[in-house]
Amino acid sequence: MEAAREAGTGRPANGAAPDFLAHWVVKTARRDEMIAWYREVFGARVVHRDRQVTFLSWDHEHHRLALIAVPRVLRYLFPLARLRRKVLGIDHLAVQFASLERLLTTHERLAGAGIHPVWAINHGPTTSLYYEDPDGIRLEFQVDNFPTVEATAAHFAGEQFAANPIGVEFDPAYLLDRLRRGDDPTELLRPGAGTRPGTTPRSGRRAITWRTL
Ligand SMILES: [Fe+2]
Q1: Alpha carbon distances (Å) from 28 to 35, 86, 135, 139
Q2: 189 Cα: distance to centroid of ligand 1 (angstroms)
Q3: Which residues surround ligand 1, an ion (CB under 5 A)?
Q4: Predicted structure pTM score
Q5: 107-136: per-residue pLDDT in tens?
Q6: Which of 49, 91, 150, 165 is 20 to 30 A removed from 212 (C-alpha atoms)?
Q7: Which candidate, 27, 37, 20, places its Cα nearest to that of 66?
């Protein structure tokens, strides 16, 4: 289990591979909103700031996100940038949480701050919450549903994934209720476990809407 969880931080056996993803860089017309959002969401700290660039980190790295300030008037291009993300290029960055409890308590904390996911879906291999930062950059907060890389690979090769590679939407507050009630956390990682009684979740291609795309 630890091998899978630590896969992003261990030295890869493949000699051609870099050791890990260090940071990403965003040209932004709303720097202050971005700083505030990452402070709230990841507990980010500003490690450097000058007129043009800001470096943020939220863990052991010297910076995880660099913001390059561009003229504020460019924020009017925001709808175009959002549209572009929906149809072309990088769709999202995924960050890992070590447990379902960490994922769901993060959801609860952010909901209290008025920050809500655009999509909550159990993909099969992962239980995932998608958020968008003030620039519309999409981040997937995920927890692995299987304990090992091998078990996940077997799921990719199986019938369930072939029949529904997108997954089943879930209600994060309901799933957290179940966790706090003492339901088995492993059981809660199954697609459908987060379906509040009396509701019908969107599943498969029906879960892809203009909002979730
Ligand atoms: Fe993803």
Answers
A1: 11, 18, 7, 16
A2: 16
A3: 94, 140
A4: 0.92
A5: 999 999 999 999 999 999 999 999 999 999
A6: 150
A7: 27
